[in-house]
Amino acid sequence: MTTLLVPALDIQKIREEFPILNQQVNGKPLIYFDNAATNQKPKRVIDALSTYYEKYNANIHRGIHTLAEKATRAYEDTRLAMQEFIHAKHVEEIIFTRGVTESVNLVASSYGRAFLKEGDEIILSGLEHHSNIVPWQMIAEEKKAVIKVITITSSGEIDIDHYRQLLSSRTKIVAVNHASNSLGTINPIKEMITMAHEVGAVVLIDGAQASAHLAIDVIDLGCDFYCISSHKMYGPTGTGILYGKKELLEKMPPYMGGGEMIKDVTFARTTYNELPYKFEAGTPNIADVVALKEAVGFINQLGKENIASHEYELLSYATQKLASLSSVRMIGTASKKVSVQSFVIEGIHPFDIGQMLDARGIAVRTGHHCTQPLMDSLGLEGTVRASFAVYNTKEEIDVLIDGLKRIIKFLN
Ligand code: 7TS
Predict the structure, then answer these.
(1) Which of 176, 187, 241, 398 is the most exposed place for a label (fewest CB within 10 A)?
(2) Ligand 1 center to residue 369 CA distance, Å?
(3) How far does residue 290's CA lie from ligand 1's centre (Å)?
(4) Which residues line ligand 1 (CB under 6 A)?
């Protein structure tokens, strides 16, 4: 990481853009370390939501009146912003969904139903979130396809040799995350995509934990599908995208039927709309899509490299401080990570740690983080997870460490 080449961000100034951070929780200043679950929203995103409802709320695409045209333009401007954000070749390769969960379901359901056959194989990794497991199980059951799982090393990395062994002419789909929500591991997806393409499989990347932290270039990666949730990149909840290669999306049947996704409807026969509208049935989440453009603007203004550099410093600092606490065991020690650190403390349940930290105004996540198979493979019920965003500081990490020291002392 080129930490020395990028200018330092003014974190205090950035914090002022996040009204929610300026509050006390349980009588203590809020320290928000649950960013992998959802990160907070800058004022420009919040303002975009209220401006939309105050000034130009209207249903999109079909209206010819001024407000409808304005709303349509704003909605489509976000599509252009997301195209640029992930460097997609065509704007119609960007489909708005509710987020990663819906994006994976769309591909599993539409692509899977059309192209999977009995005995075909789907490869997932042992690091996956439930939303990149269950939709595949559902379609695999329906089509009598088989799921194969790549094993994870003790540091929380994908075992690439095992992946190589699993790949064969039977492999039709590979679905892996760009970065793990539980351990922070950044996966070697470019290499994995190339390997999958060599056996003729298509690849879906779950980018939930990457979009706010890592540069994404779908042309360079060569992935067939890439999924993003807006709420994990400083945008509103309830929206996100599915990127898909145009030639694949064109071959895929619609996911949901309804208004907007059609060209002509008769009771005898319906023809479908062109991309991307074929996959956007019904009135979409217009306001949140419109505000997502501001989240992209926020990230672009700071620069992903600068964000990553600050978060890398926070992660290194937290890792070093946590490792110095004798009863803390770090979970997830991959060489390349986004700003997520999971840990357990011998003899104390993660939930108890979470509750005691909350009493000090510190928000962390505890439990299996929707990665139960991963926790099982690590022999854990769950972890405590601290995840950092651009507005977090080393001083906040000091408060966390102090809190943990007191908890350990109190319980021993
Ligand atoms: N994939 C990964 C890697 C995730 O981290 C999450 C959400 C999802 C998929 C699902 O995204 P959604 O926006 O559709 O819900 N992860 C978490 C988490 O770690 N804690 O709460 C939600």
Answers:
(1) 398
(2) 8
(3) 22
(4) 36-37, 99-101, 129, 131-132, 177, 181, 206, 208-209, 229, 365, 369-370
Atom of ligand 1 lying closest to residue 232 CA:
13
Residue that the structure tokens 């999924």 belong to: 227
Q: For a ligand 1 pocket test, name from 33, 35, 97, 100 the mutation site with the most ligand atoms within 8 angstroms of its C-beta.
A: 100
C-alpha of residue 36 to centroid of ligand 1, in Å: 8
- Which residues are within 8 A (CB) of 290 and not within 5 positions of it... i.e. 6 or more apart? 48, 49, 52, 71, 74, 75, 78
Give the tens place of pLDDT for each residue, 150-166. Answer: 999 999 999 999 999 99
Q: How many secondary structure helices (H) and strands (E) does the chain include? A: 14, 17
pTM value is 0.97
Residue 264 has phi, psi (to 5 degrees) of -140, 140
Rounded to a whole number of angstroms, the distance between the first and last alpha carbons of the chain is 40
- Positions annotated as catalytic residues are 370
Could you write out the DSSP letters of every residue in 18-41? -GGGSSEETTEE-EE-BTTT----
Predicted local distance difference test score (pLDDT) of residue 40 = 98
- pLDDT of 1 over the 70 cut: no
State the residue for tokens 């992930």. Answer: 86
pLDDT in tens, 188-212: 999 999 999 999 999 999 999 999 9
Tokens describing residue 198: 């060599």
pLDDT of residue 2: 43
